[in-house]
Amino acid sequence: MLSPAGQSTPSAVNRRRFLKVSFGGSAALVAAPTLVSWLGAADAKAATSPLPFVDDYRTNITTNLTPETNAVVRILGGFAQVWKTGAAWNTGTPLRPEILRANMRYCIAITRSRTEAAGRQAFVYDRQHQSYAMIAGLGPLTDLYKTGAKAVTSITSAPDTTPATTISDAAPADAPAGSAIGAGSYTSDLGQVAKLVDTVRGPFASGNPGKYAFQYPRPWRMNENSEVVDTGKTDALGFPVYDSKVVVVPQLLRQRGTSATDDGGFPSGHTNAFHLASLAFAYAVPERFQELVTRALELSHTRIVSGMHSTVDVLGGRIMATALAAAALADPANATLKAAARAQALAYFTEKTGTTADTLSAYAHSDASDAYADREANARANEPRLTYVLERQGRKTPLTVPKGAEVLLETRLPYLTAAQRREVLRTTALPSGYVLLDGFEQWGRLNLFAAADGYGAFDSDVTVTLDASKGGFDAADVWRHDIEGEGGLTKHGSGTLTLTGHNRYHGGTVLAEGVLVAGHANALGQGDVRLTGGTLRADAPVRVRGAWAQESGAVLDLTLRGHHGPVLTVSGRVRLDRGAVLSLRLDDDRPPAAGTTVPVIDSSALRGQFDRVELNSDRLRAVPVYTADGLSVRLLKR
Fold first, then answer.
1. Checking DSSP bridges between strand 581-586 and strand 529-531, what pairing results, if any?
2. CB 299 within 8 A of CB 308
3. Using CA atoms, how far apart are residues 94 and 100, in angstroms rounded to an integer?
4. What are phi and psi of 73, to 5 degrees?
5. Which of 576, 543, 637 minimizes the C-alpha distance to 615?
6. Contact 566/597 with Cβ under 8 angstroms?
7. What is the DSSP string of 96-112?
8. Confidence (pLDDT) at 8
9. Which residues form a coiled coil (predicted)?
């Protein structure tokens, strides 16, 4: 394990001093997810007021190995409730043996059931530059990015047997002039994006201090009970043989670290690198935000498949990367760079694809062969990888979102304020009770894939403004969660917001401007709905649990389908002010026939009438038929 440039490797004496002082006390057994709870008594007083991670991330260097001196070691402190570090690399003690046994059993099962193809793939992602490996998360934009960034790799396949030497990625001999491995060349058309990736993966983003701090062995050095047992034998390559059932990919046998002291497993450095690159790319290309997060989780899983890391190693790598990416993106020193990278990516991709800021996202999801084209499949694959073998215990407590975390959503949800993005992170976070995720500031609870789909709950009233003139997500976005809570939603601005969840929020819905799309029968929650302006559109029947009020100038836009019930069902009263408009469209697949009467609104009582009823047909016209509790339209030929 090599130390990053400019960082010295701690001496064995210093490591032993750290291990005895910081993780040797009985305080590590306390379950509370606070810093003081897992520090020794001598260190508790000094740690009562630690700086937020984003203000202290530059302390992550190998000369700082204690939670008091290293912010990364501090946020990974949940692991100290699972593992008590010993005075040497092979003398640690499981504090939660049931978790670490489950960890090893998972690794054994995965590596013993691994297919040859999966092993070969794991080799590629072990040896390939991690930033380059993440580029495939761009889907239809991948080849354009590689060309524009002049990004190359020499690792494209796995050898048939164990290589005779160690292998590292490099620019191929036939690569175009100016090419670079990883995210690409700084002098390319996407040089600012490449530089942002490298900056997020900068000198304070190493996993080495954490490895030295926790001294948790690689899985291939441990047996099923998380014990290190050296058999005294060596294999054909000269490596010590341990009493382990984990099977390392044959092609990676010679790529293993030779110094066990300098080759800890927790946290996984590759996992850290994958997620750091993922979040940097996602900032610059938010049109592929969820797909990049998914790819980072997928590539991190190959660390387990390869036999090189365990589940807890991978979880640790994700936790530290989430915090480190937020810190780098929130650092004022990087403000100009991150803005330039986003602007450069948008300009480059819209030019190369012939799209605009409004249509680039659709293009970025236009390829059915894209490995990440199925959003629901991505969500299913991601969910178990956020917790792996951990089992939830204890009561559910709300997350206090770490300072600066909201920057991770800055380009994906640009129309929200920083405070609102924090609410999105809070309401979509994983529940408390997962011991490794409940460390200092609880960065491990953030679920960025879910956060990209908007609010999970309205715990207070939410006012959102989308501006169509700004383009991209500012102009139109979709919130996909089943939103709960006592608060309500008010929509302002000229842009379009679509709600696709089975929403149960109670505070009501107000549309003041722009377009609000009800993409689910229960998209509008359980409260009243009031249209003071703008257009509310529903392509399928929708239900309102409260009352409905529509003021002058506001438009209700509904689709009519043959042989169907009311398009809008309102449990309470409907009030239509003078000047209210009803716009009707005929369903393309099952339009109602001429001469039929189609129910449109059903309510407990209806007062008032629409100022006009429009129908988008050149052969039919809609004649409204009002009753005391609803509205139908008779479709007549023109």
1. unpaired
2. no
3. 7
4. -60, -35
5. 637
6. no
7. SHHHHHHHHHHHHHHHH
8. 39
9. none
Cis, bond preceding 267 (omega within 30 deg of 0): yes
Encoding tokens for residue 515?
A: 């377009």
**10 Å Cβ neighbour count for 632?**
18
Phi then psi for 484, rounded to 5 degrees?
-110, -170
- Give the sheet arrangement for strand 597-602, strand by strand: 542-544, 568-570, 597-602, 630-637, 620-627
The residue length of the chain stands at 638
Q: What is the Cα–Cα distance from 92 to 216, expressed in whole angstroms?
A: 7
pTM of the model: 0.93
Instruction: Look up residue 205 and give its two tokens.
Output: 């983003």
Mean pLDDT of 232-242: 94
Percent with pLDDT over 90 in the chain: 91
Question: What is the spatial distance between Cα 63 and Cα 3, in angstroms, rounded to a whole number?
Answer: 11
Let me know if 578 is exposed, middle or buried by CB neighbors in 10 A (0-12, 13-18, 19+): exposed
Task: Return the domain boundaries, the chain.
Answer: 1-366, 455-637
How far is Cα 531 from Cα 541, in angstroms, rounded to an integer?
A: 18
264-290 CB burial, b ≥16 within 10 A, e <16: bbbbbbbbbbbbbbbbbbbbbbbbbbb
Give the span between the Cα atoms of 34 and 441, in whole angstroms: 8
Q: What letter represents residue 136's amino acid? A: A
Site of tokens 């509790």:
629
Q: Read off the tokens for 408.
A: 């991770």
CA dist 509 and 244 (Å) reads 58
Three-class SS of residue 556? strand
Question: Which stretches does DSSP call E strand in 225-348?
Answer: 230-234, 240-242
Q: What is the pLDDT of residue 563?
A: 83
Q: By the 8 A CB rule, do 276 and 325 touch?
A: yes
Using DSSP, state whether 477 is helix, strand or coil: strand
Q: Provide the total of helices (H) and of strands (E) in the chain, helices listed first.
A: 18, 25
Helix 269-284 × helix 311-330 angle, to 10°: 40
Q: How far apart, in whole angstroms, are the C-alpha atoms of residue 315 and residue 521?
A: 38
- Segment holding 450, helix H or strand E: helix 448-451
| Spatial contact of 275 and 332, defined as CB atoms under 8 Å apart | no
Q: Taken in order 34, 35, 40, 42, is the CA torsion positive or negative?
A: negative
Token look-up 């099962």 returns: 109
Token reading at 168: 């590292």
Residue matched to tokens 């030929």: 637
Confidence of residue 13 (pLDDT cuts 50, 70, 90): very low
Q: What's the average model confidence in pLDDT over 4-31? A: 38
